[in-house]
Design brief:
The protein has 13 helices and 23 strands. It is an alpha/beta fold and 478 residues long. The protein folds into 3 domains: 74 residues, Beta Barrel (Elongation Factor Tu (Ef-tu), domain 3); 277 residues, 3-Layer(aba) Sandwich (Rossmann fold); 112 residues, Bovine Mitochondrial F1-ATPase, ATP Synthase Beta Chain, Chain D, domain3 (Orthogonal Bundle), CATH 1.10.1140. Helix 4 packs across helix 5 and helix 9 packs across helix 11. The chain starts with a strand and ends with a helix. Produces ATP from ADP in the presence of a proton gradient across the membrane. The V-type beta chain is a regulatory subunit. Belongs to the ATPase alpha/beta chains family. InterPro entries: ATP-synt_VA_C (IPR055190), ATPase_F1/V1/A1_a/bsu_N (IPR004100), ATPase_F1/V1/A1_a/bsu_nucl-bd (IPR000194), P-loop_NTPase (IPR027417), V-ATPase_su_B/beta (IPR022879). Keywords: ATP synthesis, Hydrogen ion transport, Ion transport, Transport.
């Protein structure tokens, strides 16, 4: 039977202290009745003797020490789950905000999730196509993987996130069910409207469950938003056997909300003022990605975070890198050259890529092609550094070829339109087309049989050596 209390002991921002508490437990949900009619909810985050510290999700504005009734519910934070959540928009704690009425839940589940037995995890296989060459070709996203995007203030990560939502799929021939759970934390109203409008206009809104925590929403709500979104994703994946892609933006807002609440509690800060448990909180979110034995679905995560001052050693990207399986890094210099998406290829990687590409998944030449493109683009950097010292005219002919390759690689392979959705075959063929700017003897990362099959060298009318895969644009022009 729920217990009710009248009055509060103290109020400190979003934190409330209640004394004389009996039989309460950590993470228990608490309901407040303010002024006799207004209902708010919170959760217990600390217990000491008969005192409980409670976070109020909607904020403590308007609450006083005498006009508040408090009721302990006896259960942790739960959310009602249903397949009908796809195509709907919710606030940060899972309440519908799209004026389409309440959700009729099939089941309720604790948003904190349950520990997953590592033995029941299956190794991630197969890929998710994003339609973006720099991701699909060089840092392939594998089902069940967690692959963050490291961005910076002013870079087009929101546009990139929206493009991934519009274009993501399991490939051309897959008959499996696929859906997206999108959670935005601390976003401005215009950014939230951009996401809403983009999903609706592109026709993908019906397979997207969207959770929006706005910048003016209570900071405590931001802490629960990714957990609510992941609970929905787990239900769709492991109960409904769907493949779910979860996009979380911006994890920096989540971490800063944690720092703010930690400071209100008077906790001793760690690096950059963040609490010492930042790592474990991030891990509790990221590790909810994966494939569970005996189910037909998977949860794949793309967390997006903005690096303060573009510092990749900042605690948030630093700790994220320890937990996740690679990263996609956005580059401010490429963005300044109007290259979209401005993905910096060399510091980006996908550690699980090798296990979800190749024959039977994408194409037999994928891994060798990616290795050669990485190698060639690294030599482009060396040629550019040398040109900055001695001048481009003094470079050797092969260094000039690498400069030409680098320019074309950035403009045609990394760069693509915000509405351009490339198949995996188009991405791979384009890679071979670009490698044809280089002599065959420079391609030392590719198996000879693969090279014989896919490498084709020809000359354009201007005499410049280039390549074309069978049926590609370069061949057709000739």
């Amino acid at each position: 039977m729920p217990i009710e209390y009248l009055g509060l002991s103290s109020i400190n921002g979003p934190l409330i202290v209640l004394e004389g508490v009996q039989d309460a437990f950590y993470d228990e949900i608490v309901e407040f009745i303010v002024g006799g009619n207004q209902k708010r909810i919170g959760r217990i985050i600390e217990l000491y003797e008969d005192k409980a510290v409670i976070q109020v999700f909607e904020g403590s504005e308007g609450m006083s020490l005498v006009n508040t009734h408090t009721r302990l519910t006896g259960h942790p934070m739960e959310i009602g789950l249903s397949r009908e959540m796809l195509g709907r928009t919710f606030n940060g704690i899972g309440q519908p905000i799209d004026d389409l009425g309440p959700i009729v839940p099939r089941k309720k589940q604790d948003v904190n999730g349950l520990p997953l037995n590592p033995v029941r995890r299956e190794y991630p296989r197969n890929y998710i196509r994003t339609g973006i060459s720099a991701i699909d070709g060089l840092t392939t996203l594998i089902r069940g993987q967690k692959l963050p995007i490291f961005s910076g203030n002013g870079l087009p990560h929101d546009q990139l996130a929206a493009q991934i939502v519009k274009q993501a799929s399991l490939g051309e021939d897959s008959g499996e069910e696929f859906a997206i759970v999108f959670a935005a934390m601390g976003v401005k109203h215009d950014v939230a409207d951009f996401f809403r409008r983009t999903f609706e206009e592109s026709g993908v809104a019906d397979h997207v469950a969207m959770f929006l925590n706005l910048a003016n929403d209570p900071v405590v709500e931001r802490l629960i938003t990714p957990k609510v979104a992941l609970t929905v994703a787990e239900y769709l994946a492991f109960d409904q056997n769907m493949h779910i892609l979860v996009i979380l933006t911006d994890m920096t807002s989540f971490a800063e909300a944690m720092r703010e609440v930690s400071s209100s509690k008077g906790e001793i800060p760690s690096r950059k003022g963040f609490p010492g448990y930042l790592y474990s909180e991030l891990a509790a979110i990221y590790e909810r990605a994966g494939i569970v034995e005996g189910t037909g679905g998977s949860v794949t995560q793309i967390p997006i975070l903005t690096m303060p001052n573009d510092d990749i050693t900042h605690p948030i990207p630093d700790l994220t890198g320890y937990i996740t399986e690679g990263q996609i890094v956005l580059d401010r210099n490429l963005n300044g050259q109007s290259i979209y998406p401005p993905i910096s290829v060399l510091p980006s990687l996908s550690r699980l890529m090798k296990d979800g590409i190749g024959e039977g998944y994408t194409r037999e030449d994928h891994q060798d092609l990616a290795n050669q493109l990485f190698s060639a683009y690294a030599k482009v950097g060396d040629a550019r550094n040398l040109a900055s010292v001695i001048g481009e005219d003094e470079l050797s002919p092969i260094d000039k070829e690498y400069l030409a390759f680098g320019k074309e690689f950035e403009e045609k392979y990394i760069g693509q339109g915000a509405e351009e959705n490339r198949t995996i075959e188009e991405t791979l063929d384009l890679g071979w087309e670009l490698l044809g700017r280089l002599p065959r003897e420079e391609l030392d990362r590719v198996n000879t049989k693969i090279l014989d099959k896919y490498y084709h060298q020809t000359k354009r009318e201007d005499g410049v050596t280039t390549s074309a895969t069978p049926g590609s644009v370069a061949n057709k022009e000739l």
